Automatic annotation (TrEMBL):
Keywords: Carbohydrate metabolism, Isomerase. It comes from Pontibacter qinzhouensis. This is Fucose isomerase. One of its GO terms (cellular component) is cytoplasm. Pfam families: Fucose_iso_C. Residues 343-470 form the L-fucose isomerase C-terminal domain.
Length: 473
C-alpha cells in the first residue's frame, strides 16, 4: 500500500511568563527544532533576536509572531503551541487572533521534574496549559490537546500526537480547497447518491460538472495512432494484466482515459465522480473502471455512479492516511457471522487493494448491456489489512454535512465470487448498520487501509464543524 506524505509547514509559538525561568524557553526551542527536523516538518517561529529568546509573552511579542505567520500564510497548515513554563495565555491567544490563519492548533505543555520544583527551575506548565486552552476557548479558536496533559517533545506519545495532528492539518487544508469533477448524470435508479452542491460549496468544496456526451464525443474524435492514446495504452498495460480484453477495446479505454485526464488537468481537479453505467457501455462499448482505478491509485480518487460525496470521503481518508481509498458497497452478509460482511464493487478499486489485479468484465451489468460491452472492469480480492471506513454525506433537510467513521479489519476469509471484493470484520456491525439505515446514509462506504478514524473525527468534527458519529463498537 503506497503512502504519500509531503513536507508540511508548522507555525510554532513558544509561550513564556516573566516570573518563570527564561532558560526553559531556550531549551524548548532547541528540543522542538530537533523533533520537527526528525519528522520532516518545516517550522516557522520567531528568532531569539526577535523577542526574549524567541518566546511569546507580551502583546508586542504577539504582534511580531502574528506578522511572521502572516508572511507564511500560504504555507502554514497548523500551529503548535509549546509551553516550557506556565506561559502567557494572552500572548498565545492574541498571536492566533492577530494572525487570522484559521488553521488547526495543537497545545503542548512540558512536565515538571519532582526534583526541580524550586523557584529557579519549576515550570507549572500543567496549570498553564489549562489557562491557555481556556483563553483559546474564549476567543473562539479551535484547538487540539495532546494525549498526555503534559509531555516532553521527545516522548513517543508526543511524536504520535504530532504526526496525527499533521494528518488533521492535511485533511482540513485539503477539504477547504478541494475541487471535484462530476462527469455525467447519476444513474436514474440511484437516488441514494443525490447530494447538495450548495452545502458543499459553503464548506469550501467546489464541484465542476461536465456532460458525459462531451467526454465520449471527445474520446471518439481521437484515433488509435494519437501519441496521447498510445501513451495511455502503454500505461494501462503496465498497470494491470489485460486478460481477454480485445485490443480495440483497450484502445477505447485508452481514449477515454486521455479525455478524463485532460478534463481533470484543465479544471485543476483533485477527484472525480463518474457516470460509470449504463450510458458508457451502451454508447461507447466498455467500462471506465480501469481508468478510475488508476486515478485513485495515483491519489486522484474517483468514485462510481457520480457519487460526489463518496469521492469526497475517499479524498478525506486519503489525506488522513497518505494512501489510496476505495468506494465500496455494503454488499452482503458473511454467512451467519454478525460482525463480518462482504464489501464489493464491479471493479474500480485502486491497485493497492488488489495484489491479484486483472482486467475483466462486469457480469452483473452485462446481463442488461451485454457482457462484451463491459470490458475494462477489474477483478481482484483484497487480502487482510487494517481498515478505516466511513462516509461523508450532505443532509439536505437539516442543511448540514454529516459523517460516520470507524475502524475494523479486512480479513482473509474465503470469498468465492467475482469483481472487486473483500471481507470486513467490524465490532458491533449490526449496531453500525442500524445507525447507517436510521440516519439515511448511502449504500456506498469508503475503505482505507489505515487506522485513522481518530484523525478524521478531529479534522471533520472539531475543525470542519461537521456532525460526526464515531462507531467504536
Amino acid at each position: 500500500m503506497q503512502n504519500v506524505k509531503q513536507q508540511l509547514t508548522l507555525g510554532v509559538i513558544i509561550g513564556n511568563r516573566n516570573f518563570f525561568p527564561d532558560s526553559l524557553v531556550a531549551d524548548a526551542r532547541i528540543e522542538i527544532l530537533s523533533v520537527l527536523e526528525d519528522q520532516n516538518i518545516r517550522p516557522v517561529l520567531l528568532d531569539p533576536e526577535d523577542t526574549k529568546l524567541g518566546g511569546v509573552e507580551t502583546f508586542q511579542d504577539a504582534m511580531k509572531c502574528a506578522e511572521l505567520f502572516k508572511k507564511h500564510r500560504d504555507e502554514i497548515v497548523g500551529v503548535l503551541v509549546l509551553l516550557p513554563n506556565f506561559g502567557d495565555e494572552r500572548g498565545v491567544a492574541e498571536t492566533l487572533k492577530l494572525a487570522k490563519l484559521d488553521v488547526p492548533v495543537l497545545v503542548q505543555a512540558y512536565p515538571d521534574d519532582l526534583e526541580k520544583l524550586d523557584v529557579a527551575r519549576r515550570r507549572d506548565s500543567w496549570c498553564g496549559k489549562i489557562s491557555v486552552c481556556n483563553n483559546l476557548y474564549q476567543y473562539g479558536i479551535k484547538y487540539t490537546t495532546t494525549t498526555k496533559h503534559v509531555v516532553h517533545p521527545s516522548d513517543p506519545s508526543f511524536i504520535a500526537d504530532l504526526n496525527d495532528f499533521m494528518a488533521v492539518c492535511r485533511v482540513v487544508r485539503g477539504l477547504r480547497n478541494v475541487r471535484i469533477g462530476a462527469v455525467g448524470a447519476r444513474p436514474g435508479g440511484f437516488n441514494t447518491v443525490r447530494y447538495s452542491e450548495k452545502i458543499l460549496q459553503r464548506n469550501g468544496i467546489s464541484v465542476t460538472t461536465v456532460d458525459l456526451s462531451e467526454i465520449l464525443g471527445n474520446a471518439e474524435r481521437l484515433t488509435k495512432d494519437d501519441s496521447a492514446v498510445l501513451d495511455r495504452l502503454e500505461k494501462i498495460k503496465a498497470y494491470t494484466p489485460t486478460g481477454l480484453t480485445p485490443e480495440d477495446v483497450l484502445i477505447q479505454i485508452a481514449k477515454l482515459d486521455v479525455v478524463l485526464n485532460q478534463f481533470m488537468e484543465v479544471n485543476a481537479l483533485d477527484a472525480t465522480a463518474i457516470q460509470c453505467w449504463t450510458s458508457i457501455q451502451q454508447n461507447y462499448g466498455c467500462n471506465v473502471c480501469t481508468s478510475m482505478s488508476m486515478m485513485s491509485e495515483n491519489m486522484l480518487p474517483s468514485a462510481c455512479e457520480v457519487d460526489v460525496t463518496g469521492t469526497l470521503s475517499m479524498y478525506a481518508m486519503q489525506l488522513a492516511s497518505g494512501s489510496p481509498s476505495a468506494l465500496v458497497d455494503w454488499n452482503n452478509n458473511y454467512a451467519s457471522d454478525e460482525e463480518k460482511c462482504v464489501l464489493f464493487h464491479c471493479g474500480n478499486w485502486a491497485k493497492s487493494f488488489l495484489p491479484d489485479i486483472k482486467m475483466s468484465t462486469a457480469p452483473i451489468l452485462g446481463t442488461t448491456v451485454g457482457e462484451e460491452n463491459t470490458f475494462g472492469a477489474l477483478d481482484g480480492r483484497t487480502p487482510a489489512m487494517p481498515l478505516t471506513y466511513g462516509r461523508i454525506s450532505t443532509d439536505d433537510p437539516k442543511g448540514i454535512i454529516k459523517v460516520y467513521i470507524g475502524e475494523g479489519e479486512l480479513t482473509d476469509d474465503a470469498l468465492n465470487t467475482f469483481g472487486n471484493r473483500a471481507v470486513a470484520k467490524i465490532n458491533n456491525l449490526q449496531g453500525l448498520m442500524q445507525y447507517v439505515c436510521k440516519n439515511g446514509f448511502e449504500h456506498h462506504v469508503v475503505m482505507n487501509a489505515s487506522k485513522t478514524a481518530g484523525i478524521l473525527k478531529e479534522a471533520l468534527g472539531n475543525y470542519m464543524g461537521w456532525e460526526v458519529y464515531h462507531h467504536e463498537g
